[in-house]
TrEMBL record, chain A:
Source organism (scientific name): Tissierella creatinophila DSM 6911
Cross-referenced InterPro entries: AAA+_ATPase, ABC_transporter-like_ATP-bd, ABC_transporter-like_CS, ABC_transpr_LolD-like, Cell_div_FtsE, P-loop_NTPase, Sigma_54_int_dom_ATP-bd_1
A GO CC term assigned to this protein in UniProt: plasma membrane
Topology class, membrane: Peripheral membrane protein
Keyword Nucleotide-binding: yes
Domain of life: Bacteria
Lineage, opening ranks: Bacteria, Bacillati, Bacillota, Tissierellia, Tissierellales
Alphabetic keyword roster: ATP-binding, Cell cycle, Cell division, Cell membrane, Membrane, Nucleotide-binding
Cellular localisation: Cell membrane
Any one of the GO BP annotations: cell division
SUBUNIT field: Homodimer. Forms a membrane-associated complex with FtsX.
Name this protein carries in UniProt: Cell division ATP-binding protein FtsE
Pfam families: ABC_tran (PF00005)
Boundaries of every ABC transporter domain copy: 2-226
UniProtKB/TrEMBL annotation, chain B:
Record's function text: Part of the ABC transporter FtsEX involved in asymmetric cellular division facilitating the initiation of sporulation.
GO biological process per UniProt: cell division
GO cellular component entries: plasma membrane
NCBIfam families: FtsX_Gpos
Domain called FtsX extracellular: residue spans: 62-151
Domain of life from the UniProt record: Bacteria
Membrane topology, from the record: Multi-pass membrane protein
Record-linked InterPro entries: ABC3_permease_C (IPR003838), FtsX (IPR004513), FtsX_ECD (IPR040690), FtsX_firmicutes-type (IPR058204)
Membrane-traversing stretches: 26-53, 167-191, 219-242, 271-291
PANTHER family xref list: CELL DIVISION PROTEIN FTSX
Naturally occurring in which organism (per UniProt): Tissierella creatinophila DSM 6911
Pfam families noted in UniProt: FtsX (PF02687), FtsX_ECD (PF18075)
Record domain ABC3 transporter permease C-terminal: where: 173-293
Protein name as annotated: Cell division protein FtsX
Length: 226, 297
């Protein structure tokens, strides 16, 4: 599903954020990416999102080589990837419902499908009651659930999450993890960069540990530390 | 179906954002209108001068060939034959001494008695040239024939007028080009504000997988709508403004100088099309320029 071959990333500033990354992630896997601050976790997510281009190496998503693609094709690659950020990134002038519907409108979805689909995902993140609230009227945990709903509304095969619990207290973090786990159980591949030791240790999944841009551990059902 | 829906929501977005930024929008519309209105009057000026040139040309397509008194009949025949065979000549007319005097008398009217006893008028030919561009060549050829005293024609006036018309056209184009550049700049700044205020939204749209054209279109549309509104305003202003001027001036001009301005009705269609095209072009260009920076998320 995702394959990285000898991927390296050096930023223009000269920082080598990733060096020789070889990685194979299968359909339906749940993968934590852990490591100290600056280890290169976000950089890895950005490469997958085509927000940054790798300096060398090859990258495949769904069997398609996406290492070097025309800018015009990037939106279509991104439609395979739901994405969740630490800071939620919701539109404050749109309601919860509209924020989610928006992701479908952009792809030109049928309004009938939108009306049918949005309540389903809202229910999935347990926010049916908040459908017409604005993001500012929600708690951090609720906002993150909206952003997860938006990420999965178009049914992407892969969900990328960069520290989705980073701004949340443990309880809310746990709530988010339940939802991500549920999404994964329904067949979506989940890749999650995180600092949350408790979560990684309790919900044991494949752990890929980065240190200074190099994979130092790739462990099935691993813990946060070795 | 898909596309239609996207177009609909795109329009909605454009109108919303125009309404939100109506202050700057007004500035944009005014600047495009200013360009178009000036363009309109420059055009009217150019068209009037062109009409004048055509008019003058038709009046000055005559060449007068004055003959020496001792010109032979063969040479007269040569001139006539030449005129008949030369493609560039429309007509030739022989004007004898007597006829020349008659014409003069008619021109002088009441003071015609002063001409009493004048007998030194030469015989002449009056030739009408089809295209006055060829006048020089034709005159040169006729000049080779023996027995011609001198040849008179009005090349200078026409040349001067043509040069004048050329300068007006050239100056007009420069003024308009500068004005267009300025208003593209103003528009692009207006739209840049809108784009900047929606920067976060654009970033989010890109993460979700919106195409560049999906993101760009509302802004381009916004620019084009500015342009169209400005064009409609300018069409009305130029049409009625010029119509007023025309009524005011044209009577006097045509009496004094037998010059005709272009009537407003004849320019309405041309300026309408031109204004709509240029107006929306300025708007589109302005917004495309303003988007460049923000699309590389
Ligand atoms: N746009 C950029 N330009 C230059 N250097 C960058 C850029 N983004 C990240 N870096 C550098 O690349 C390295 C890896 O950064 P990255 O954001 O991937 O780390 P991270 O593992 O996500 O850290 P954190 O846990 O703090 O989020 C760091 O040294 C960082 O300073
Ligand atoms: Mg990071």
């Amino acid at each position: 599903m995702i394959k990285l071959v000898n991927i390296s990333k050096e930023y223009k500033s000269g920082v080598k954020a990733l060096t020789d990354i070889n990685l194979h992630i299968h359909k339906g896997e749940f993968v934590y990416i852990v490591g100290e601050s600056g280890a290169g976790k976000s950089t890895l997510i950005k490469l997958l999102l085509k927000e940054e281009a790798p300096t060398s190496g090859e990258m495949y998503i769904n069997g398609v080589n996406v290492t070097k693609v025309n800018n015009r094709r990037i939106p279509y690659i991104r439609r395979n990837l739901g994405v969740v950020f630490q800071d939620f990134r919701l539109l404050n002038n749109k309601t919860v419902y509209e924020n989610i519907a928006f992701a479908m409108e952009i792809l030109g979805a049928d309004p009938k499908d939108i009306r049918r689909r949005v309540p389903v995902v809202l229910n999935r993140v347990d926010l049916s009651r908040k459908s017409s609230s604005f993001p500012e009227q929600l708690s951090g945990g609720e906002q993150q659930r909206v952003s997860i709903a938006r990420a999965i509304v178009n049914n992407p095969p892969i969900l990328l999450a960069d520290e989705p619990t980073g701004n949340l207290d443990p309880d809310n973090g746990l709530e988010i993890m339940k939802i991500l786990n549920d999404i994964n159980a329904r067949g979506t591949t989940v890749i999650m960069a995180t600092h949350a030791k408790e979560i990684v240790d309790n919900l044991r999944r494949r752990v890929i540990q980065l240190k200074d841009g190099v994979i130092v551990r790739d462990q099935k059902r691993g813990g946060y530390d070795e | 179906m898909n596309n239609f829906r996207i177009i609909k929501s795109t329009f909605r977005q454009s109108f919303k954002s125009m309404w939100r930024n109506r202050g700057m929008g007004l500035a944009s519309i005014s600047s495009i209108s200013a360009v178009l209105i000036i363009l309109g009057f420059v055009l009217v000026l150019i068209m009037s001068i062109n009409a004048l040139v055509v008019d003058v040309q038709s009046k000055f397509d005559e060449v007068e060939i004055f003959l020496k008194e001792d010109i032979t009949e063969e040479n007269k025949k040569l001139i006539e034959d030449f005129a008949q065979n030369e493609d560039g000549i429309k007509s030739i007319e022989y004007i004898s001494q007597e006829k020349a005097l008659e014409i003069l008398k008619k021109d002088w009217g009441e003071e015609a008695d002063l001409l009493e006893g004048v007998t030194t008028l030469p015989d002449s030919y009056k030739i009408k040239i089809i295209d006055i561009q060829n006048t020089d060549k034709i005159v040169e050829k006729i000049n080779d024939i023996e027995g011609i005293d001198k040849i008179k024609y009005h090349k200078d006036i026409i040349d001067k007028l043509k040069v004048f018309a050329k300068y007006i056209r050239f100056g007009g184009i420069i003024v308009i080009a500068v004005l267009i550049a300025i208003s593209v700049f103003i528009i692009s700044n207006t739209i840049k504000l809108t784009v900047a205020s929606r920067r976060r939204e654009i970033g989010i749209m890109k993460y979700i997988g919106a195409t560049n054209s999906y993101i760009k279109t509302p802004f381009v549309l916004e620019g084009v709508l500015f342009g169209i509104v400005a064009a409609i305003m300018s069409i009305l202003i130029v049409y009625f403004g010029y119509g007023y001027l025309f009524d005011l001036i044209n009577g006097k001009l045509s009496v004094l100088y037998s010059i005709m301005l272009v009537p407003p009705e004849t320019i309405l269609k041309d300026i309408s099309i031109m204004f709509l095209v240029i107006g929306s072009g300025i708007g589109a260009l302005g917004s495309i320029i303003s988007m460049k920076k923000y699309l590389n998320v």
